[in-house]
Structure formats: structure tokens, C-alpha cells
Amino acid sequence: MRDDERSLHELLLELDRLEELREDLLELGIRSIEELDARIADLHRLVDQMSGEQDIGNGPV
Q1: Spatial distance between the Cα atoms of 2 and 58, rounded to a whole number of angstroms
Q2: Number of C-beta neighbours around residue 23 at 10 A
Q3: CA dihedral 37, 11, 13, 43 (to 10 degrees)
Q4: DSSP per residue over 19-61, as a string?
Q5: Rg of the chain in Å (alpha carbons)
Q6: In sequence order, which residues have a C-beta less than 8 Å from that of residue 25 and are 6 or more positions away?
Q7: Full-model pTM
Q8: Please, what sign has the CA dihedral across residues 13, 15, 16, 18?
Q9: Which intervals of the chain form a coiled coil (predicted)?
Q10: Whether 36 contacts 30, CB under 8 Å
Q11: Would you give per-residue pLDDT tens digits along the chain (61 residues)?
């Protein structure tokens, strides 16, 4: 759908969402999509590592 076919309400909602997203990213120190992708990958690795450690601690007795 083209921007000129959308209602003012829809445009304002998107604008608000994008501004909030921008603020959140800046608070996290993320300034580009590449930084966002790298942070997501780092967090996935940390979660996988921590999950593996918990599995070892909860293994059979």
C-alpha cells in the first residue's frame, strides 16, 4: 500500500512506532542494522551457552 493511500491514523501510528524503536536502539547503543544483527547473534550465543551449562547441572543423578 502506498503512503498516500493510508489514513492519517495509520501514518501517525507508524511514525510513533518508528520513533520509539529509534529511541530504544539508541539507548542500547545500537546505531545500525549491522550492529543490531551482531548484538542478536551475541545474545543467541550467550543464551545457548547458558542453556548448555544449565543442562549439565540438571543432568541425571
Answers
A1: 54
A2: 10
A3: 0
A4: HHHHHHHHHTT--SHHHHHHHHHHHHHHHHHHHHHHHHHTS--
A5: 20
A6: 31, 36
A7: 0.68
A8: positive
A9: 1-53
A10: yes
A11: 677 789 999 999 999 999 999 999 999 999 999 999 999 999 999 999 999 887 766 655 4
